[in-house]
Design a protein that fits this description.
Length: 227
């Protein structure tokens, strides 16, 4: 399944994480050239078709701008980078709250902004963010995380309207708990068979980020599995 992505350049943030590896593999299989900004030094070279750039802090405005400015013409930008910290509000410090905003919302905002600049120069593209079921169906106990992901949802919807005339489509996938090694270790007694699998989420991202998606924009697409 190539979906018109052969030889196309795609940014994937968070590309070395549990979901990120599956997304990178899906795009490589579709023939895309994947560009991965890495927070620390590049430890190992990944597969053919994957280009990593080390020491890119996605919370740093100037670093993100410089990274995108040095890329070839982009077909898509996929923003998976983020993090989770759960705690009741009485146990959540301002630093905890701001850290979640930085990791989840600021990174998405800065990458969206620079992707839009790049795509406007070439006449369009696709942007995909990652929200969370927590912001759509809050359960409590992770207020900082929930607020940060609600911001990602609002960013996605608002930006989709702003850049529609530019031929840029903006969507988000909204997963529940993803079946990754880290989540299995953190919740060993959970019903893991009900969690959505990274490869399945990756296929959804692949389609909405491809040229085959000609209409869908501003959508928050639930990828809950049976959870």
């Amino acid at each position: 399944m190539t979906l018109g992505l052969e030889g196309q350049h795609v940014v994937i943030t968070g590309g070395t994480g549990g979901l990120g590896q599956a997304v990178v593999q899906a795009f490589v299989d579709a023939g895309a050239i994947c560009h991965l900004p890495v927070h620390g030094p590049v430890a190992i070279q990944l597969a053919t078709g994957v280009e990593q750039t080390g020491n890119v802090d996605l919370t740093d405005e100037h670093a993100v701008a410089a990274y995108y400015a040095g890329l070839p013409s982009l077909s898509a930008s996929i923003h998976l980078a983020g993090g989770y910290q759960g705690a009741p509000i009485a146990e959540t410090s301002r630093a905890d709250f701001e850290r979640q905003l930085q990791l989840n919302l600021v990174t998405a905002f800065l990458c969206c902004r620079e992707a839009v600049k790049a795509m406007r120069r070439t006449g369009g593209g696709r942007i995909v963010n990652v929200g969370s079921r927590a912001s759509e169906v809050p359960s409590g106990g992770a207020v900082a995380y929930t607020i940060s992901k609600a911001g990602v949802a609002a960013l996605t919807r608002s930006l989709a309207e702003e850049v529609r005339p530019d031929g840029i489509l903006v969507n988000a996938v909204v997963p529940s708990i993803i079946d990754t090694p880290a989540n299995r270790a953190a919740m060993p007694k959970a019903a893991m068979d009900r969690w959505p699998k990274p490869a399945d989420i990756a296929r959804t991202i692949l389609w909405i980020a491809s040229p085959e998606n000609r209409l869908t924009s501003g959508a928050l697409i639930p990828v809950y599995g049976n959870a």
